[in-house]
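=== RUN LOG ===
request id: a7f3
mode: sequence -> structure
chains: 1
length: 265
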Amino acid sequence: MTTKSMGPNDAVLMEKLSDHVALVTINRPDARNAINGDVAAGMERAVQETEADPDVWVVILTGAGDKAFCAGADLKAVSGGGRGTLGTPNGGFAGFVHQPRTKPWIAAVNGFALAGGTEIALRCDMIVATEQSAFGLPEVKRALVASAGGLYRLPRALPKALAIELIVTGDHFDAKRAHHFGLVNRLVPNGKHIEEALRLADAICVNAPLAVRAALAVARQAYDHADAELRKISEEAGRKNMETEDFKEGPRAFVEKRAPKWVGR
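=== RESULT ===
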């Protein structure tokens, strides 16, 4: 499989794991995959390329090495007054946390996902984590604020009281506890995160890709609107999906008792 560099200095790499699954890797293992300008540029490009590629249906995001998924912002860049270099105008922190996306992303976490690393994982749609992994927003310990989405995405993902405790203490919480409370979808032995994330991606890829994206777009807005507005959004998504070729193929394959052949149109 061909691995492509997505940013300067090979800071972000991308490869295809299967016909419809891409793997994006933050590639700064010596710095625990901390975010700098090179990573931000590479992450933004990775999002743009996977969005533009009709053959990519699911994306897995991981960090190189076995120490950390991502340790957050590169504090050397922050201490030097370079916080603006840690993101992009469209994507925000890491070129990712506010970047518009239509396709499912799975965070494959092996090791620490702290500060901005937790915020990146929260911005993914699902999380697979190894038993050695840990999450946390320790920014307050360094007189910083977790301003890349963690302060509102963590309370959506965990019981509110627990999320607030973690935010104001800055303490870590391990992957087993995160799995117990539903932040982590699948908990696996050390080193099995990519394998399990690919298994989850494959389970998504048996479904019609445009229907998956339409459903995901509605689900992502579940906390943003009242039921009446969400009903309208859901109905519009269903209407648009009915215009696709795959909408015709699904029932036809069922009647003919065969596996559907999705074309993503």
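=== NOTES ===
The longest strand covers residues 21-26.
The chain has a mean pLDDT of 93.
=== END ===
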